[in-house]
Amino acid sequence: MSLSRTDAPKGYKLLLDARRNLGTAFSEQQREEHGLVGLLPDGVETMSVQLDRARAQFAEQQTDIAKYQYLSALQDRQERLFYALLRSDFQCFMPIVYTPTVGEACQRFGHIMRRPKGMYLSTRRRGKLAEVLRNWPVREVRFIVVTDGERILGLGDQGVCGMGIPVGKLALYTACAGVPPQSTLPVVLDVGTNNAAFLSDPLYPGLRQRRMTGDDYLSFVDEFVDAVQKVFPDCCIQFEDFTNTHAIPLLERYRHKVCCFNDDIQGTASVAVAGLFGACRLAQSKMSDQRILFLGAGNAAVGIGDLFVKHLVSIGVSPRDAATRCWFMNSRGLVHAGMPKLPSYLAPYAHALDGVAIPSGAAAGPDSPITSLADAIEALRPTAIIGVSTVQHAFNERVIRTMSRLNRRPIIFPLSNPTSKSECTAEEAIRWSEGRAIVATGSPFLPLHYGGKLFVPGQGNNVYIYPAVGMAVFATRAKRVTDEMFLCAAESLARQTTDGDLAVGLIYPPIASIFESSVQVAIEVAEHIFEAGMAREPRPANVAEFVRAKLYEPAF
């Protein structure tokens, strides 16, 4: 970071510039040169001392939401110290910066907002979105995380209060994988909200109107995507927390035209498939042995199924046979070929029920002969169940015990978050399976002891994937983001799980080492990008050194 630029702020204005402010770490010479003498106490402190103070102040906060607000204010005041603090203890700070605390932060955004971050593009600005984007003070924006706030985590419509998600995601781009923060921009598309509580809340800061829909909605998103290409031509767009109605169609609409991806679809798929690789190592089985039953049939579930199928096809399984390894349950029951009104993206997984032995006494519904998850497990005999339903307690004792009766090492992935939406806890999965379940959860759970053995639940969090893919895209200036990049990321992440990790049931590298694992994933994805001819940068002699040279380091 240079303070010598002629346009750099001086004096008190420099202390208000979060990106350049070093606080009490400004040297005596810097204080003289930049008009800071007398504006700071005379003691010149190291980053280590500032980190000790920040940790103490953080620890004084009485609630998680208060801790979230403290970190947000630190980011606004002294950006480098904020990122250094996050990197000093990911296990402590990540659940505050992102899930599960960010969910509460979104719900209360209108009440706890201090200094707004990012950009808010409302439908009132239609026809002028490129002009509005030019108000952002940085010209070299390389990543935008954008949401319309309609399906924030498992919490539903949060309108512009969903801004906490892009802000949190981009903070982890930097903290976990070294993407420079000045190259990132969080965006909310304010198309209204159908959240009645927000519409009647005098402190709700967004448009007070019901959501735009149909062709008007699509044309507004089209204008946004086009405006990004004009204003930030090297930018990659990450779509985040759009509903099932919009997520898959929007991804298909833009993925072959611009550099973009959907983390809920592709990032979730990648981390889940990485977990399956780890589970296979732990169970001493093969990916081609797996049969998966998904609870939830939206974009996240289908994204996991699609990437799992892509892997099976890459190792020689026919596309048809690969698809039959995936079954889905939605709110109407087990998805099958005769079920009416299925969305097109479920068609490859709507299998005929010929040969499926439906248990006697199974609870049937108007659209499906099986509406109970436990009955579906009895009928299909899956090796793995993956929860992306946001239905708390859906993986109940009967479900876990049925999986454990049918499998020596049942694979149980309750991936919904925040914690209040998890299909089961890690402790429930371990206890009801008598210690045999291989568990990955979407929300963090503490290590536990069962039967005299230590179990460390793996958190199947997208943070293992999207920052690393983002760093690879940033370094190579990739033209597009492909599913193959996410499969490469899953394979790379799985290779970094050690035998020691597996010994305690951990199927991902420890969160504490996420920076090192993310950089390695970024290097391998960058290799893939160069090999696939998707890079705008010329291929360097040493890709690892090339990527590492571009990492953001928060040290003073």
CATH homologous superfamily (4th level) name of the domain at 266-463: NAD(P)-binding Rossmann-like Domain
Strand content: 5-15%
User: Regarding CATH, which class of the domain at 266-463?
Assistant: Alpha Beta
Class by SSE composition:
alpha/beta
As for the CATH topology of the domain at 266-463, it is Rossmann fold
What value does the Rg take, in angstroms? 24 Å
Mean of residue pLDDT?
Answer: 95
The helix fraction, in percent, is 40-55%
Helical region count?
Answer: 24
Low-confidence sequence ranges: none
Specify the biggest β-sheet. Answer: 7 strands, mixed
Distance between the termini: 8 Å
In words, what does this structure look like?
The chain contains 24 helices and 14 strands. It is 43% helix and 10% strand. It has helices spanning 11-15, 28-33, 47-60, 64-77, 79-88, 90-97, 101-107, 109-112, 129-133, 164-177, 196-199, 214-231, 244-254, 263-283, 299-314, 319-323, 373-380, 397-406, 426-432, 466-476, 483-495, 499-503, 514-531, 543-548, and strands spanning 119-122, 143-147, 184-190, 236-239, 260-262, 292-295, 326-330, 333-334, 384-387, 411-414, 438-441, 448-450, 453-455, 458-459. A hairpin with a 2-residue loop joins strand 12 and strand 13. The chain starts with 10 loop residues before the first helix and ends in an 8-residue tail after the last helix. Among the domains are: 101-258, Malic enzyme, N-terminal domain (Rossmann fold, 3-Layer(aba) Sandwich), CATH 3.40.50; 266-463, NAD(P)-binding Rossmann-like Domain (Rossmann fold, 3-Layer(aba) Sandwich), CATH 3.40.50. By secondary structure, it is of the alpha/beta class. The strands form 3 sheets. It has a 7-stranded mixed sheet with strand order 8-7-6-9-10-11-14, with helices on both faces.
